[in-house]
């Protein structure tokens, strides 16, 4: 891995931490709040690519597990890995990898609508399909109830998917993916 990739991974981990400073929006019917940090996850995948994007999210999760209060609402430590939000948090590296993988596949013919579709499938739906059942398991509720509760995240997550796609396409020229495509 190049130094440039490590710097990008560290910068995006820091960016996720900054997004964690934006207060969460608690929902009364589900123990998982609405946060802006999934925007960072989607952006890591579609801007950095599968390898560096995934590494940045893993780095962030390790830093949070070590106790830094970088999750929205000032949460951190090992307790978050067994809380109702654990499934959502642990789905982030998977989502970043899938978004990065698919974005790299369409990079030569990149269009904003394609990145939006990739972000919706892997940044919105995949995170909910992993996070909601884990939340249901931890809270001793039915998986169906968890999935129905996760519907509340869809409108905001779709907006974040659009924002991440627009940013990634606008910054295409400086993306590490662009460099990889030209060097291959």
From TrEMBL:
<feature type="transmembrane region" description="Helical">
    <location>
        <begin position="144"/>
        <end position="169"/>
    </location>
</feature>
<feature type="transmembrane region" description="Helical">
    <location>
        <begin position="78"/>
        <end position="103"/>
    </location>
</feature>
<dbReference type="Pfam" id="PF02632">
    <property type="entry name" value="BioY"/>
</dbReference>
<feature type="transmembrane region" description="Helical">
    <location>
        <begin position="55"/>
        <end position="72"/>
    </location>
</feature>
<dbReference type="GO" id="GO:0005886">
    <property type="term" value="C:plasma membrane"/>
</dbReference>
<protein>
    <recommendedName>
        <fullName>Biotin transporter</fullName>
    </recommendedName>
</protein>
<keyword id="KW-1003">Cell membrane</keyword>
<feature type="transmembrane region" description="Helical">
    <location>
        <begin position="115"/>
        <end position="138"/>
    </location>
</feature>
<keyword id="KW-1133">Transmembrane helix</keyword>
<comment type="similarity">
    <text>Belongs to the BioY family.</text>
</comment>
<dbReference type="GO" id="GO:0015225">
    <property type="term" value="F:biotin transmembrane transporter activity"/>
</dbReference>
<keyword id="KW-0812">Transmembrane</keyword>
<feature type="transmembrane region" description="Helical">
    <location>
        <begin position="30"/>
        <end position="48"/>
    </location>
</feature>
<dbReference type="InterPro" id="IPR003784">
    <property type="entry name" value="BioY"/>
</dbReference>
<keyword id="KW-0813">Transport</keyword>
<keyword id="KW-0472">Membrane</keyword>
